[in-house]
Design brief:
With 165 residues, this protein is mainly β. The protein has a single domain, classed as Sandwich (Immunoglobulin-like). It is built from one helix and twelve strands; from the N terminus they run αββββββββββββ. Strands 1, 2, 3, 4, 5, 7 and 10 form a seven-stranded mixed beta sheet that branches. Strands 6-12-11-8-9 form a five-stranded mixed beta sheet, with no helix packed on it. β3 and β4 form a beta hairpin. The chain is elongated.
Length: 165
């Protein structure tokens, strides 16, 4: 028996609303090139504008980046920012500390890895289902970097562009 179009649309609407609710309280930008990443407690954020990610600054003048793990209907996973962009390109400024805030509302473990030419630069460590993780990442050089999930590298991946301004 097939689902009626109304039930399908209702389920889709509920999924979208759920994703939006998970993202409330977060603003997004991401990472940069650093050998060290350290844990940090989260702070309140205020939104600033950016073309591909929501950038925010907390009360410690640290710029925040928010990404959520997202499971699609076909069972694949993606990263999503608070603007609902899938595997967004993250545009960052060099010589800036970023508080990377990751939410995992899925039933699978995830781990954010930042790298360059196959070399791991920083990582979040594993984020268990239903958990959140924050870590500090310093964008200390310009260039193009990549990010991906340790457990879903083919579907949860994106680009980080770090510029001098």
């Amino acid at each position: 028996m097939s689902k009626s179009p109304i039930i399908s649309k209702t389920l889709t609407s509920c999924l979208i609303i759920s994703i939006l609710l998970v993202g409330i309280g977060y603003s997004s930008t991401l990472f940069v090139h650093s050998i060290s990443a350290k844990k940090s407690s989260s702070d309140k954020t205020t939104a600033l504008s950016s073309t591909t990610s929501s950038v925010s600054t907390n009360n410690n003048n640290m710029t925040s980046v928010a990404l959520n793990a997202l499971e699609l209907k076909n069972g694949t996973y993606r990263w999503q920012n608070t603007s609902q962009q899938i595997n967004p390109t993250l545009r960052l400024i060099a010589h800036t500390d970023y508080l990377i805030k990751i939410k995992n509302p899925t039933d699978s473990k995830h781990e954010l890895i930042i790298g360059s030419n196959g070399t791991e630069i920083a990582k979040s460590n594993s984020i268990n289902p239903g958990k959140n993780k924050d870590f500090v990442f310093n964008a200390n050089t310009t260039g193009v970097f990549e990010y991906h999930c340790e457990y879903h590298p083919d579907t949860m991946k994106g680009i980080i562009e770090i510029s001098s301004q």
